[in-house]
Amino acid sequence: MSSETAFAEAHRARGLAPFLRSQMRNIAPFLTLICLSAFFAFASPSFATLDNLGNILTQVSVTGIIAVGLTFVILCAEIDLSIASIANVTGIAVAYFTLQESYVNIANIPLPGAVAIILSILLCALLGLVNALGLTVIGIPSFIMTLAMMQIAAGISALLVRGQIAYKVPSLITTLGSGSISGIPWIVIVAAIMLLGGHLVLTYTRFGRYVYMVGGNREAAEYSGLNVKLILGAVMVISAVCSGIGGMLGVAHFGSAQQNEFDTYLLDSIAAVVVGGTSLFGGRGGIGNTIVGLFVLGVLNNGLDHVNIDSFLKILIRGLILLAALIINVFAQRLREKAAE
Amino acid sequence: MPEVRSPILELQGITKSFGGVEALRGVDFALLPGEIHGLVGENGAGKSTLMKIIAGVHTEFSGRFLIDGKETHFRSTRDAHAAGIAMVHQELSVAPDLTVAENVFLGNQPTNALGLVQWRRMAREAGEQLARFGIDVDPMTRLGDLPIGLQQLIEIARVLFSGARIVILDEPTSALSPPEVERLFATLRRLREEGTAIVFISHFIEDILLVSDTVTVFRNGRKVAETASAATSKGALIEAMIGRGGEALEHSYTDDLMLPQPSDSTVVLKADQLSLARSLKDVSFEARAGEVLGIYGFMGCGQQELSRILFGKLKPDGGTLVVEGRPKTFASTAAARRAGVALVPESRRDMLFHQEPVYKNISISILDRISSLLLKPAQERDIAKRQVEQLQIRPPVVGLDLGMLSGGNQQKVALAKWLTYPPKLLVLCEPTRGMDVGAKNDVINIVRDLRARGLAIIVLSTEPETVLSLADRILVLKRGTLVREFSNEPVSKDRLLEAA
């Protein structure tokens, strides 16, 4: 008995250093966020204002909605490169099913708003299902499978709009994408609800646990009798649907639906998830990390506008920050493994 | 012993702790050139930790570390390598997709002036080296196509012939067949003549006594004995290891053991004419409730594949499985689990989540029983606590990351995950491999208890002792075919080996 308590006490008295080391993944992104915010607040008087906080929130909303699903995928140690394309095609689809002004030269199929929305969501779910089947049934690595889907979704977008631009979307989408309620943009609220929902699912549901376990050790998950393929398939569909919702609201937010509208969102969403500290090797991280990552990206993008920097340099700086985050991501994994040894 | 030699490696007062848990406490250890030094001790006694310090894997510890009498501090395994220290780890670390020759020369392929690999020379030299070891394979074969035992021998050969002065072998014989073990020992003795110092860690005390000059015993992170092999016995070593009357615990199984009458209880699983590519051919048997069916065979006889088929991980090319009278084709391991089949594979790494706490490891297979949608962490912890208590898992802290537990305790966790809601059929692969006597005994008792509760149990092992200690009925699998059934008759280690 005495040895048991000794063990328990030894465990409790593990000390701060190993704990911090194992928490590196969560601490580093947060420190990055604080440093960046402090820097921009110091460099520009217009940065640290309540108005600008609202700007930042609005600017990261679409990315945030897409990143919810991507977090599930990356937690499973998979990747989804088709998110931006699926967002684009879903946004275009919902406009395609809506009556456009007469000057818009698209042979579209106007339908009632609710039907248009449901059809669009079915479309992105279907594309996600194709991803899922390719990954699990055929066994194509997600990197390649979703690369193909990126092209397929872009192709469908191209066929639907044929180089034209559509403007109208169902009124519900218009409201959620560009309206606001007592000063708060609906799109921010939607993003917050989806992030919260994702967090709750990952933390408190059986499915969420399975996602972490499959990502932590896929082989062990299979030997524990989990249906690994079903879980992987589910996360691919979740990712596609989140992208689709992000795409629909994005179209309303930008006020137009056109080809290649969401191209930058692929990198931004992956960056948000990874910068936030979710492990690329799976099993570690979560929506909390993604939120921090979103803010790091949001503050960076927004702040660089405030300090009057060469807009071409901005792209380079973003790339460098992403690289730094990747290094920390891999480094944190190693530290953790060491702490667990 | 010839004249007094000065130690090639000397460690003084080594202490090492992991997050507050002391794995080694003030250990002294000296290694002479031309010596085979056996290390024994229960799982978690500190053997592997000490060896990892010597091999430069663990670089933070306190105490003095001397090589050739000079104080040294390795910062990495590369430093250790440069000092002539090489280690073969318990887990295979080969490149299965490369050729045998590439594996032998991994990291230092012979190249010509242009830096191109000299394939012909490499193949020839690899072939020669392996021949010295008594291995006759085409050096240009893909390594992964060879049986596991042979792969392990090749890995050991690579390390032994790497020119290292100090070679550490961690459980090298657990995957080897008896003739392979003989070959290994012959090579070790030859290297000893050449002046290489060898550390040999093993749970097979017979092997240690057979091959080593000196034996050191660890218990609870301390060195408790060091003696000449000739001056000790298996019983004495076991006693030093576990600190209690050891004789009764370790059964040698050289004498005949009487198997009971075959059981006539319900057939839980019936395998009919199972076949799989080159691994299995027409394997048929029945597993009954309340009976432990042992399946014995050498490494690569098809045991692994058979266990995977039973759990739905592999699909057989032919044959049928009938579970409780109903024919089944498992589409996934989840389907097998739902049908009441559970598997504990031979590798803990494949079964457990090292970065997750113990309780999540235990609850993962039964989550759907305790929660439909939302998790119930408190209940999970309760269940885990009960299992940890019942199986005497140490340390008894369910929130601890699994990776912090010793190998034997991890193995118990692997069992524990199936025990809260016992399956109908439990398939155990090598349930006691790499375990110390005490932990082995615990596992044996757990299995007997489960049998008494009416489970059908299949134990697959390449160690005759494991099968003999557990099984009521024994099947011998040889190159993918069942060749012999022992039932209601005397059986011994010799008889099993003969049949295989």
Verbal overview:
The complex is a heterodimer of chains A (341) and B (500). With 341 residues, chain A is mostly helical. Chain A has one domain: ABC transporter involved in vitamin B12 uptake, BtuC. Chain A contains 15 helices and two strands. A two-stranded antiparallel sheet of chain A has the order 1-2. The N terminus of chain A is likely disordered. By secondary structure, chain B is α/β, with parallel strands linked by helices. In chain B, the strands form five sheets. In chain B, strands 6-7-8-3-9-10 form a six-stranded mixed sheet, sandwiched between helices. A six-stranded mixed sheet of chain B has the order 17-18-19-14-20-21, sandwiched between helices. Chain B has a four-stranded antiparallel sheet with strand order 2-1-4-5, with helices on one face. Chain B has 17 helices and 22 strands. About 1% of the residues of chain B have low confidence. Chain B is globular and about 70 Å long. The two termini of chain B are 40 Å apart. Chain B folds into two domains: 234 residues, Rossmann fold; 243 residues, Rossmann fold (3-Layer(aba) Sandwich), CATH 3.40.50.300. At the A-B interface, helix 1, helix 10, helix 11, helix 12 and helix 15 of A face helix 10 of B.
